[in-house]
Amino acid sequence: MDIDAWVWWLIGAVGLGIPLVLTAMPEFGMFAAGAVAAAITAALGGGVVAQVLVFVAVSVALLAVVRPIANRHRDQRPQHRSGIDALKGRTAVVLERVDSRGGRIKLAGEIWSARSLDADLSFEPGQQVDVVDIDGATAVVM
Q1: Long-range contacts for 94-97 (Cβ within 8 Å, ≥24 apart)?
Q2: Distance CA 121, CA 102 (A)
Q3: Alpha-carbon torsion (65, 66, 67, 70), positive or negative
Q4: Looking at the predicted structure, is the pLDDT value of residue 77 above 80?
Q5: What contacts 6, CB < 8 A, 6 or more positions away?
Q6: What is the pLDDT of residue 97?
Q7: Is 40 exposed, middle or buried (0-12, 13-18, 19+ CB in 10 A)?
Q8: Weakest-pLDDT range from 15-29, 32-46, 93-107, 121-135
Q9: CB of 75 within 8 A of CB of 92?
Q10: Euclidean distance between CA atoms 118 and 141, whole angstroms
Q11: Between β-strands 128-135 and 110-116, what pairing exists: parallel, antiparallel or unpaired?
Q12: pLDDT tens digits for range 82-138
């Protein structure tokens, strides 16, 4: 059984696609694209040297162009804040007078103990305050 070179390149592309799916490493996809380009070269009658050069050129070009773009997009994703970090900077409503000794606020639908950031500041019920920090189970507001 005599199989054409382009079929071998397609088998190689599929072989490179398997680790792409299993490991989620996009580099394998770029090599698979290079193998498809080499298969096209073989189908058009290109020699073995041309096929290998096309495979290498396409693979390297994809690595050189696509990887930096992907890394840049990965680095620009907004960071998801969770826990107490997600509460900092939010607005709360004063339920019981808040001063430097304590008080109560409603923050993110929950009732929190709170104290003012500045000892001279106090906030009356109904006022809106900004959460500056979370100190244990106490919100520090201003």
Answers
A1: 94/123, 94/124, 94/125, 94/126, 94/127, 94/128, 94/129, 95/125, 96/125, 97/122, 97/123, 97/124, 97/125
A2: 11
A3: positive
A4: no
A5: 39, 40, 42, 43
A6: 95
A7: middle
A8: 15-29
A9: no
A10: 9
A11: unpaired
A12: 888 888 989 999 999 999 999 999 998 999 999 999 989 999 999 999 999 999 899
The Cα–Cα gap between 60 and 40 comes to: 17
Q: Which residues contact 31 (CB under 8 A, 6 or more apart)?
A: 16, 59
What is the SS3 string spanning the chain? CCCCHHHHHHHHHHHHHHHHHHHCCHHHHHHHHHHHHHHHHHHCCCCHHHHHHHHHHHHHHHHHHHHHHHHHHHHCCCCCCCCHHHHCCCEEEEEEEEECCEEEEEECCEEEEEEECCCCCCECCCCEEEEEEEECCEEEEC
CA distance 65 to 22: 23
- Asked if 79 and 92 count as a contact pair (C-beta separation under 8 A), the reply is no
Task: Say if residues 124 and 97 touch (Cβ distance below 8 Å).
Answer: yes
